[in-house]
Design brief:
Elements lengths: L2 H16 L16 E7 L4 E4 L2 E13 L5 E7 L2 E8 L4 E8 L2 E8 L11 E8 L11
Parallel strand pairs: 1-3, 3-8
Antiparallel strand pairs: 1-2, 3-6, 4-5, 4-7, 7-8
């Protein structure tokens, strides 16, 4: 058998493999890229930046810049997530998939405070675009 015959035989053997899996594979859109937010607890208020993002997975890294331990609460749209207590100068992370709506990030303490720490408000808008077109994602 010559080189032309071997090439024809190899192509004929590989053709059935080309169609494998076409019916089982569903090319659905991937979720949006997760967004990282930063926050700070101060004696008088909690701040989170940016304060407005689209819906999807959100990780809030928050630093306690007060003199005492604080429990951090993310609340809104039928979720309540708590982490802590977080010691002075410590950090904590909250990761959730958030739907559109309004959320509050609060810092509390077991010890009575002279005045309440004002919460940060987080506005979650419509869902962010799919990450299907983004390269080099985990």
């Amino acid at each position: 058998m010559g080189a032309r015959g071997l090439a024809t035989l190899a192509i004929a053997a590989l053709l059935p493999l080309a169609a494998c899996g076409d019916e089982d594979f569903e090319n659905s859109a991937r979720p949006p890229v997760p967004v990282g937010l930063t926050g700070v607890i101060q004696d008088d208020k909690v701040t989170v930046s940016p304060a407005e993002v689209g819906a999807g997975q959100v990780t809030i890294t928050i630093s306690n810049q007060t003199d005492g331990p604080k429990t951090i609460t993310l609340e809104g749209e039928s979720i309540t997530e708590r982490v802590g207590p977080v010691g002075p100068l410590g950090t904590a992370e909250l990761t959730r998939t958030l739907v559109p709506g309004s959320y509050e990030v609060r810092a509390g303490s077991e010890k009575a405070l002279r005045k309440e720490i004002a919460p940060a408000t987080l506005a979650i808008g419509k869902e962010r675009k799919s990450s299907s077109e983004d390269l080099l994602l985990p």
